[in-house]
Amino acid sequence: QVQLVESGGGLVQAGGSLRLSCAASAHTLSTYAMGWFRQAPGKGREFVAAIIWSTGSTRYSDSVKGRFTISRDHAKNTVYLQMNSLKPEDTAVYYCAAGDSVYDIPGLWNRAWGQGTQVTVSS
């Protein structure tokens, strides 16, 4: 039912910043959580960050703690991922997802997935 569209990816030098956006086609008040995942070539899909829609509570993977910030805008029905101090290992396709809870396993986020946006960090 909910459709998600990511944007904001691009090419940035190491140490730089990007802000990703995930716009939902419908109101997300009934969606428990929104999350960001990423997938680099040759690797599986990795959890990055999540937010509980109603409260704004957040969770981050250890690899991005202190560098990335997830947030949401109720009026715009949009979730953001502010990425600072980017590293080459952050290079990946970033996906947003909607789920019934904050899960560690990507496959359990089964409400909706976006098409992804490419983030490339040069050294």
Protein model, in words:
- The model has no long low-confidence stretch (mean pLDDT 93).
- With 123 residues, the chain is mainly β.
- The strands form two sheets. Strands 2, 4, 5, 6, 9, 10 and 11 form a seven-stranded mixed beta sheet that branches. The protein has a four-stranded antiparallel beta sheet with strand order 1-3-8-7, with no helix packed on it.
- The chain contains no helices and eleven strands.
Helix-strand layout with pairing:
Blueprint: E1 4-7, E2 10-13, E3 18-24, E4 33-39, E5 46-52, E6 58-60, E7 68-73, E8 78-83, E9 92-99, E10 112-113, E11 117-122
Parallel strand pairs: 2-11
Antiparallel strand pairs: 1-3, 3-8, 4-5, 4-9, 5-6, 7-8, 9-10, 9-11
Helicity level, as a percent range? under 10%
Number of strands: 11
Main sheet summary: 7 strands, mixed
> Class by helix and strand content?
mainly beta
Shape, principal axes of CA atoms? globular
What fraction strand? over 45%
What is the average of the pLDDT values? 93
Uncertain regions: pLDDT < 50 for 5+ in a row? none
Compressed to H and E, one letter per element, the order equals: EEEEEEEEEEE
What is the distance, rounded to the nearest whole angstrom, between the alpha carbons of the first and last residues?
Answer: 40 Å
**Helix run count:** 0
Q: Any idea what the radius of gyration is? A: 13 Å
